[in-house]
Amino acid sequence: MGCNCAYIAQKLEETGIEIARHSCIGSDPAAAVNILTEMGQRSDIAVVAGGLGPNDGNHTAVAAARAAGVDLILDPQAVASAENFVKARNRTLTDSIKKQAMLPTGSQCLNNPVGTTPGFHIKLGQCDFFFLPGALFEMRQMLTEQVIPRIMKLLGPAVGVRQVNTLCTFGLAESATSYYLDEFDQLFPRVKLSFRTKFPEIHLKLYARGDDEREMRAQMEAATRWIHRKLGDKVISDTGESTEKVVGDLLRQKKANLALAESCTGGLIADLLTNVPGSSDYFVFSAVTYSNELKMKILDVNARTLNRYGAVSEQTAKEMAQGVQRVSSATYGLSVSGIAGPGGATADKPVGTVCIGVADAKSVHGYRFNFNFPNRWMNKHIFATTALDLLRRELLGIRR
Amino acid sequence: MGCNCAYIAQKLEETGIEIARHSCIGSDPAAAVNILTEMGQRSDIAVVAGGLGPNDGNHTAVAAARAAGVDLILDPQAVASAENFVKARNRTLTDSIKKQAMLPTGSQCLNNPVGTTPGFHIKLGQCDFFFLPGALFEMRQMLTEQVIPRIMKLLGPAVGVRQVNTLCTFGLAESATSYYLDEFDQLFPRVKLSFRTKFPEIHLKLYARGDDEREMRAQMEAATRWIHRKLGDKVISDTGESTEKVVGDLLRQKKANLALAESCTGGLIADLLTNVPGSSDYFVFSAVTYSNELKMKILDVNARTLNRYGAVSEQTAKEMAQGVQRVSSATYGLSVSGIAGPGGATADKPVGTVCIGVADAKSVHGYRFNFNFPNRWMNKHIFATTALDLLRRELLGIRR
Fold this sequence. Notes:
The structure is a homodimer. Chain A is of the alpha+beta class.
């Protein structure tokens, strides 16, 4: 039942292919055959994900074979590919893995480099179908490696020249971003602007297509510059790169490194930073200190500060940032202390309150924000990205 | 273009409603009207998500109005709901927010408690349509609060009695899990079993429907017991609860608490644990120590151990676990040191190698694994859940 159509549509659009329609197929076999037949009459190219894999009992291959009016046969290439995969893992070929290598007669096997389930390419009616397993990582890799090159070849020059550009922004709600960019369509009729929320970032996708590459590139550059003028320092990157990636690159450029003192974000900032390959160049330490005792013991926060102002205060955040900078000898110390909810709120510190400290060896700044999001997950993420953005501003010399 | 159909289908199935088919609608307005009209002839109930919201320009409302042959009018309930939302946030009603309150004449507004975009309910042809905004959190909350109760009312007793149960498992590949449960359909013909991978966990969904509640419940219990016999200690929970939630509950039951020493998982274990509300009851500290210096300074790892065995070794992992237990005075110390890739591999320690330590005040155990996943994200997640599972086994007295 998993549906990957948003991902597939995005990937295809990035290569300049526009999607006319997506359908998802339920679990009823007869209905699946009908839908595939209908799609074969209506479309030129279709990508189908799911219904293939060890637990999907080969449903889609059976339906495709029925729609094509052919039988399933054991595909030698599919067997070899699965065999390679399991051998490399010291496992053996089971019957259920072999069953997956039964493909419709006349189809072409699409190798799966990261699993045992092959995909296949077959023509039904007028339409070229690409069938992929539903498992996310397998589907994604096969889409990029196996399917898109074949589609580009099928389409040939019909695709035209196209360019896609993504701007990552942070700090404005979607409605505010939309308000600032209201005139975009009027000013840049040949560039399509769309919004993708990767909470808490908002990614702006610019998409242009045409025959004259130079003119298109000029339009794209003008549109990008205009967005910069409108959104200012809310633009994190012109390349779709995330806040944590941009902060990491800035640290590397400055030959600086970073230590974190996290409380309510619970390790999320460290996790985000270390999801970026190569982050060991600049990330040295995070102390996730939930208790006051450990804030004192590890970060050297003053007991009086905790008593007088509380753990969620600019004063404590500043001492946490300074403490973690000192203990790790990092260039920068960044700290977060707040209330992610649902518990922990007090009268003057509601859920969504967060205090952040940014320190280097010489100075420290404290900040306080009140956010208003409906759950813990969103609060942790807005706190984390706000802290990273404050460090980004520090690194770029942008003052709030 | 965002597609939420997997989520919607799952939620509806949990309430006993089976999905015949999903369609997703592209950006072409005329095509959208056609698809809605077609759906109105073919289905009884439809849920449409997306194409409503500040940046979607009300496309779906326009298409629905055209399919119904009516105009859009300003809906007073929709205006009031948006007004409440923005007032609570000290913001004002903008034109773009008001535009979203334009709903097809004759439709019924569906309140949005977490945003400014209302949904609406309208009959097109024979079909009851529920339109929702595409923004994930808004859509999810409205589906549960506004749509499902209305659908249950429309369906009345036709839904019958149903029961859904989810088992969370960890430690077997999907193909192996499927192999062990091969006879399920034969043994329990009235219970439907499906697999949902929440990497690295595999969730087994049991779904039963019938007229006799007692008999159905007995079937469900028998099926659950049978899966336990087949998968043994690979079953983490009978309730769909994640490994981190189960570990947290075990710690709370034992009045124990936990400190972490993370290296390659980069704060992910702390993040997973602290995503669970109430985790401050048992989670006290995580030291994310990327550098050897900080492993020595904060965790008191011996320089000789690091020199002789390296950072990625059972010996270092054991000292990290003991060190973090001591420094935090927690009941348990859990440590992870490994190579998540793409860099960092050596001849005898390939990407995917991970060492884990589990310590209490008296004893410590070290473990070493080699995983073979294709990327950093997957490695971090399999390392994190493996560590949590080892602690779970320790807490339950299960020996490997």
